[in-house]
# Entry
Amino acid sequence: MWLKRGMEMMKINKDTIHAIGIATKTGRYAATYAHKDIAFEFASWISPEFLLNAVLFGKTAKQWRDDNPDEKGNIRDQATIYQLLVLANMESYNAVLLKKGKTQAERMQLLHELAVQQMTTLSSLELSNLPGIERK
# Structure
């Protein structure tokens, strides 16, 4: 199976990458299966939002939907103004970390530290004193 992200091409096949934890099935119902850690890394490679949701909210969007079947929208639709602000900052910081060549594990640790620091600071603010901002 070939995957393309930007100009980068990647072939997923257990025989060519010699990976433990990946299984492929050919034929009419062809599929590629991966261990959950490999799947997480792959999802983060395709979508940085996947990584950011896991870092900030402690769960993926799918896990949130499974936990909240009656809620409309997605995990970000239910986020507080603080979480949305931190998420925007994390997206920018993640881009910087990627440019610096940080691994996923390094990025997750640094992004987690940023999220904790910013959420702690923002939680100590009193928004009711600011005109035009209502608490969710």
Q: What stands out?
A: Residues 1-34 form one domain. Strands lie at 2-5, 8-11, 22-25, 31-34.
